[in-house]
Amino acid sequence: MSARHTEVTVGAADLDPCGKVDHPDCGIRDVLDRVGDKWSVLVVVELANGVRRFRELQRAIDGISQRMLTLTVRRLERDGLVVRTVYPTVPAQVDYRLTETGTSLTHLVKALADWSLDNRATIAEARQSYDTEHPDNDIR
């Protein structure tokens, strides 16, 4: 959805399935591997508010370990979504910021966050109904 999107969306989006014989892999699996994990999305959300140092990111993202944050920002950097800048100070100062591509992702993350807020109650009700109808199914 673009910032200029003004139409009411009804029905499913027109999506071509990836990986079928007549449709090449569109790369969505590769992208989802990166932005589909909760830590990457939370780092992107935090960096959408501006440049952050490593410890600022770690404090802002509840529950993330130092190792997981290191791996996450390295992967985002490798994918061209984050820029890591090291300053020649003692001790070295490092900060992170979104690239133009990373910044463009924030609009999609915002749309997903808005969707989740709009549908939170409906999903909770559906889960409750499913769990009541299927008490022996342990998928929680």
Plain-language structure description:
With 140 residues, this protein is mainly α. 51% of the residues lie in helices and 10% in strands. It is built from 5 helices and 3 strands, in the order ααβααββα. It has helices at residues 28-35, 38-47, 54-60, 66-78, 100-133, and strands at residues 52-53, 82-87, 93-98. It has a 3-stranded antiparallel sheet. A hairpin with a 5-residue loop joins strand 2 and strand 3. The model has no long low-confidence stretch (mean pLDDT 86).
Structural class comes to mainly alpha
Count of runs of 4 or more consecutive helical residues: 5
For the biggest sheet, the summary is: 3 strands, antiparallel
End-to-end span in angstroms? 31 Å
Percentage of residues assigned to helices: 40-55%
* Average pLDDT over all residues: 86
Which term fits the overall shape? globular
Q: How are strands sequenced across the largest beta sheet?
A: 1-3-2
What's the total count of β strands?
3
What would you say about this model in short?
The protein is mostly helical. The protein is built from five helices and three strands, in the order ααβααββα.
List the helices and strands and how they pair.
Blueprint: H1 28-35, H2 38-47, E1 52-53, H3 54-60, H4 66-78, E2 82-87, E3 93-98, H5 100-133
Antiparallel strand pairs: 1-3, 2-3
Task: Name the features.
140 residues; mainly alpha; three-stranded antiparallel β-sheet; 3 strands
